[in-house]
Amino acid sequence: MLISAKTVNSTIYIKLRGDLDHYKASDLKNQLNKYADMPKIKRMVLDMKGMDFMDSAGVGLIMGLYKKLKNKNKQLYFFSPSPQIDKVLRVSGLYSIIPLIEQEVK
Amino acid sequence: MNNNMSLKFDAIAENESFARSVVAAFCVSCDPTVEKINDIKTAVSEAVTNCIIHGYENMANGQILIEAELSDDLLKVTISDNGKGIPDVKEALTDFYTTSKESDERSGLGFTIMKSFMDSLDVQSELGGGTTVTMTKRLK
Lengths: 106, 140
Fold this sequence. Notes:
The complex is a heterodimer of chains A (106) and B (140). Chain A has 106 residues and is of the alpha/beta class. Chain A has a single domain (3-101), classed as STAS domain (Transcription Regulator spoIIAA), CATH 3.30.750.24. Helices cover 39% and strands 33% of the residues of chain A. In chain A, α1 links the parallel β2 (11-20) and β3 (43-54). Chain B is α+β, with helices and mostly antiparallel strands and 140 residues long. Chain B has one domain: 2-Layer Sandwich (Heat Shock Protein 90), CATH 3.30.565.10. Chain B is built from 4 helices and 5 strands, in the order βααββααββ. Chain B has helices at residues 15-27, 34-55, 89-92, 110-117; strands at residues 2-10, 63-71, 74-81, 120-126, 130-138. In chain B, β4 (120-126) and β5 form a beta hairpin. Chain B starts with a strand and ends with a strand. The model of chain B has no long low-confidence stretch (mean pLDDT 95). The A-B interface holds A 19, 21-23, 29, 53, 55-57, 59-61, 63-64, 83-84, 87-88, 91-92 and B 13-14, 16-17, 20, 34-35, 38-39, 41-42, 45-46, 49, 52-53, 104-107, 109-110, 112-113, 116-117.
């Protein structure tokens, strides 16, 4: 699960790559928590365009990340999930707390 | 098209990706849509992850058996472990049900996803004997 991050003003855009399952989740969790703790960050966007697959292990990870950010009054967003990931996100109900943003991240 | 396969492998997290890819590849001969292939991959991933986390409690000393059958464009896939079993299957099938601690960050959606991504789901479990999950999906 390769990721790269870029900060614009107080928003951090995180590009995720590859598969996110139970095997990959713990490494990614540590990396994302590091970004979530950065004091100048107010918003985090998970750019899922480069992701191939996600299952409910990803949902658990994202729920944990959302709670962590919310405790610090920070908001989480999704960008560009694949149809497979979109279906997992819909079934899980995550869209009701984490909005999908439309604009392309440069 | 009628076809059968079985696959036995170690219950370790590294094999989750391998297992879902094998079942997806097995179905390709029926020429299913990309959406159906992805549904199968997702459901198999959930079932295999359950065996590893819950059946064997991450102990890495168990094995998982996958048996798949294609018959007239219907996939039947059975995923079994010889792990500790589920005390109350009905309760385990409830959305958001999880036995894990909050710090583990489990979504409790494994069975919910299997149910909604496949056409049918059946769970048989015996305490101390293991769990068998059977799912079907029409590919055409």
